[in-house]
Design a protein that fits this description.
single chain; 117 residues; mainly beta; 0% helix
């Protein structure tokens, strides 16, 4: 059973930075797709950034140039470096992973990011 655990959220002022970490456990050592989603109050969950097993990345237009997704294969960990954070980035951020096509999607419990002065 795959388990995902996020860390690194918190309160930051506009223009600040945070680095989110998603640690995977449960015996899967390479995922077909991993990524980060976010959900703000009253809004639908949306893709922030994703990374395939081949290293291809995809970003929401709203975060391009500010956020970077990366992976430490040796520790099966995915990171989201968030720079120049703005109040509209405030949301709960969820880690997502899919081992391979046809397998279930796995989600972490979420970590809160609040951008406020």
């Amino acid at each position: 059973q795959v388990q995902l655990e996020e860390s690194g959220g918190g309160l930051v002022q506009p223009g600040g930075s945070l680095r989110l970490t998603c640690a995977a456990s449960g015996g899967v050592y390479m995922f077909d797709n991993q990524g980060w989603y976010r959900q703000a109050p009253g809004k639908q969950r949306e893709l922030v950034a994703s990374l395939t097993r081949y290293g291809d990345t995809n970003y929401a237009d709203s975060v391009k140039g500010r956020f970077t997704i990366s992976r430490d294969n040796g520790r099966n960990t995915v990171f989201l470096q968030m720079n120049d954070l703005q109040p509209e980035d405030t949301a709960t951020y969820f880690c997502h992973a899919k081992p391979s096509p046809g397998t279930p999607d796995y989600w972490g419990p979420g970590t809160q990011v609040t951008v406020s002065s």
